[in-house]
Amino acid sequence: MQLRQADDEKSLFTLYAQLVDAPQLVSSNNLSAARSWIRVAEEFQHPSTLLAFETSLRLLIHHLAALPLLPQYLIILKERSASLAVDAFSACLRRGARVRAVELLEQGRSIFWSQLSRLRFPLDDVMASGPVGRLLADEFMHVASLIRIALNSPGADQHGRLCHLNFEIQRLIINIRELPGLSRFLLPSLFSDIRHAASGGPVIIVNASQYSCDALVILLDRDPIHIPLQITQESVRDLSEELHASTERAKKVDVTRELGSVLRNLWDQVVSPVVDFLLTTLPLQSRIWWCPTADFSVLPLHAAGPYRKGERNLSDLYISSYTPTLSALIRARRSSPSNTAGGGKRFIAIGQANAIGQVELLSVGTELANIGHRIGGPASFKQIEGPESCISRVAEELCKTEWVHLACHGLPNRTRPFESAFALHDGHFTIERIMRCEPENPQFAYLSACHTTVGDEVSPDEVIHLASAMQFAGFRSVIGTMWAVDDAETDKITSTFYKHMVDESGCLDYTRAAFALHKTMRSVNVPLDQRILYIHLGA
User: Fold this and answer.
1) CA distance linking residue 180 with residue 169, whole number of Å
2) What confidence score (pLDDT) does residue 342 get?
3) Where is the CHAT domain (predicted)?
């Protein structure tokens, strides 16, 4: 675009600024105009650039809030929000606005899960506000339950019913925000709130944008630390493609050699600059959380290192976990009523070795039996496999258990992510089906299946994969996999892992999962690709 005169530029940006006052009912034209504002503002380095990003994100969320919460509306996210959050994050950092960068990224990632989580939002503060609050909370819960019923009842009138109910939930949200102290009910979190994600250790956001690649270290007691990365978005994509090619190799010697190259490049260009800062402020063997965006989300940041004799890899220094957003980590740390030293846990181990159309998994039976041997004392252990591990039974058990171990084929769908599934006896236990589950007190899930952290190819920042679905269902701590699992190695890994999950008092504690995985992978003798494919998400 060419603006020949200063008056043209001023007039154009005056028009764009009118979007700030756009009505609550947002049109597609509003969204397109806001994205145009961003493009032009970035091109001319206009002072309104951050306002353009803020407005675009706000309009997008208002637009989505007026739509039924159906998976098919993910297509709107793909069309309307591609790179919006990561580019907003970059724009803020390039202008020194580190706190605002965190707020906008948090607002613009995992939008689908965020919208859906409104139906499960705790209403304690609303109910405690007084009689009016109790009435509104009751009505909110009633409408939310009707929405869940409608989501589970496909039919010709489903769209109409959901539109009506969605209008009702929006009305209630507006009314609740008028109550004293609740003006920010279900609004995007402020940094003063979400910085508490770092209460257990630093959270490192690693962002890839067309404008810059950056790391931002979130700390509880000081402002975020910005670490510019000397790598381009294109180079990050090259690394992810190289990783994918190396993990698909048939010969383990080729896998190890090529994977080592990826991990060294990842260390040199991304992780080492972050570690240089961490070593100045954080004791060794402390926990850290990675929050990767865009193409960084498929890279094993936790496994980066020089992989040279006499030099330390990241796993020699710190214990890594992951989180899709800061808010997700805060939710994972909410107090669990039965995560006490004395309480016995309900543990269900689910196995399916012979799913229709899949290669037989020879180690499933042994894997489940060894888990039962390891944790049968500290937990009330139940094992189902073969014909028993059907969709209805697994869904039922998932709602009643606190701990779950799934050993089966994982089937990612990178173009229709809500169809990603676990292969069970009678079909696919999809993300869409998992979304309907409401476990009573979910704590820990171990997903011993392939590709459980692989999400949508076009919209990785929506973080829609099997592990995130278990997190949305409420499981505070999840073990997932980044690529294909070798069936010959799983029993060795899981048996060692559960040995470390039992604490000194002989009890199970889901907050030990990151430590247990870290210790397992440093001690178990398996090929490099199998040693680093498991990751921990959550608390």
Assistant:
1) 19
2) 42
3) 262-524
